[in-house]
Amino acid sequence: MPQSLVFALVHIIFSTKDRTPSITNPTDLHAYLATVARNLGCGCFRVGGSADHVHLAIGLSRTITIADLISELKTSSSQWMKTQSASTFAWQRGYGAFTLGKSDLDALMRYIDNQEEHHRKIDFRDELRAILKRYGVEYDEEYLWE
């Protein structure tokens, strides 16, 4: 095959340092994150979240690793947030990244769109535990919240 063709849908989640509710203007941050992803050649289907974390539905480019994408998303958005009057803004070190099939895209976008309503019922810690369980990811609770 003379071409390299890829559709790799990734659900990415990362939180603010110590889960501080420091995302005060989510619309602008979400737009910024989408732009960073697209500038890296990735499709960005949706960005959402709450005051202490974000979810992204990303179509991963064939030329970038998940780790490099997330590093660039977090680094550039942290620097940008600091220019937007959040001088002490920081992301937590880790992240979650989970692959899905194209048939899961609509459900993932609805899930991301409904974050505000979702978090009236469940906090971020319980949400992340449920996602890890759904994807069958083993974890050590001691290191999950550093």
Ordered list of secondary-structure elements with their pairings:
Blueprint: E1 9-15, H1 26-39, E2 43-50, E3 53-59, H2 66-83, E4 96-100, H3 105-113, H4 115-118, H5 124-134, H6 141-144
Antiparallel strand pairs: 1-3, 1-4, 2-3
Helix pairs in contact: 1-2
Q: How far apart, in Å, are the first and last alpha carbons?
A: 44 Å
Report the principal-axis shape: globular
Oligomer, anyone?
single chain
Structural class: alpha+beta
| Uncertain spans | none
> Which strand-content bin applies to the residues?
15-25%
- Largest beta sheet, briefly? 4 strands, antiparallel
Summarize the structure in words:
Helices cover 41% and strands 18% of the residues. By secondary structure, it is an alpha+beta fold. The longest helix has 18 residues, at 66-83. The chain is globular and about 50 Å long.
Quick summary of this structure?
By secondary structure, the protein is of the alpha+beta class.
Features of the shown structure:
146 residues; alpha+beta; 6 helices
